[in-house]
Write a structure and sequence with these properties.
The chain has about 130 residues and is mostly helical. It has a single domain, classed as Four Helix Bundle (Hemerythrin (Met), subunit A) (Up-down Bundle), CATH 1.20.120. The chain has four helices and no strands. The longest helix is centred in the first third of the chain and has 35 residues. The radius of gyration is 16 Å and the shape is elongated.
Amino acid sequence: MQMSNIAEFNSAANADVEREHEVQLGLLRALCVAAGENRAASEIGEILDHLIAYSEAHFMSEELLMRLKSYDDYEDHVEDHLQMLDTLRGIAASHAAGDTALVAGRAAESLDFIGRHIATRDRRFADHVRLGL
């Protein structure tokens, strides 16, 4: 019975993380569209605020799960998270200062970065959890 509970936990943890990834990717896509269409600064700022807050919460929960699972690639994985948050905060600071010319390009680069992160580092971690390692 205990093994079943662990397997159920692992499956649920992976499903939760995947749902969070979809929300995060959706916010990044929305930022790319809004910046690419030169929408109102307030709309772009609001998307950035939501994206940063959501990413902070998602990364924190993922990192807690990695610690719980004694994940061997924790440090490198977290470094990606820190890099992504620094980039997003930089975009937000530039945008708030009125320097919006590069927001669309930097948002697209961030979407590409997080997509690669999910496909590689997060996939490896999901396999680690799924296999109950």
